[in-house]
Amino acid sequence: MEKVVTGLLVLVGIIHLLPVSGVLGVERLAALYGISLGEPNIEILMRHRAILFGLLGLFLVYAAFQPSLQTLAIVAGLVSVVSFIAIAWSVGGYNESVRKVVIADIVAIIALIAAGVIHGVGRNQI
């Protein structure tokens, strides 16, 4: 079962690493999110967001192979994806590209909940 948790955390880590290419500039961000970033402040914020996603993605992948960090990784991943979905749903009116992000985050939630249950059961059996 430990390998299942590892695989699920790697999957969620990859989902979080996908937006990292946004750090390369406006064109990549526009392709990722289907939005125009004509204002420099929005570009700065979005590129920084890409870096933060990269850090979280790397942590999730690293924690996948470090059982002592898996609980923290699952919680951090859940905070990330649940908060994004909550914001997206509360604002509404998002485009097709952001809808794809919402779907990816729903997949991540399912994976993280499964990983959490399996990880928790495994810890209770020790």
From TrEMBL:
<keyword id="KW-0812">Transmembrane</keyword>
<keyword id="KW-0808">Transferase</keyword>
<feature type="transmembrane region" description="Helical">
    <location>
        <begin position="72"/>
        <end position="89"/>
    </location>
</feature>
<keyword id="KW-1133">Transmembrane helix</keyword>
<keyword id="KW-0548">Nucleotidyltransferase</keyword>
<dbReference type="GO" id="GO:0016779">
    <property type="term" value="F:nucleotidyltransferase activity"/>
</dbReference>
<protein>
    <submittedName>
        <fullName>Phosphopantetheine adenylyltransferase</fullName>
    </submittedName>
</protein>
<keyword id="KW-0472">Membrane</keyword>
<feature type="transmembrane region" description="Helical">
    <location>
        <begin position="49"/>
        <end position="65"/>
    </location>
</feature>
<feature type="transmembrane region" description="Helical">
    <location>
        <begin position="101"/>
        <end position="121"/>
    </location>
</feature>
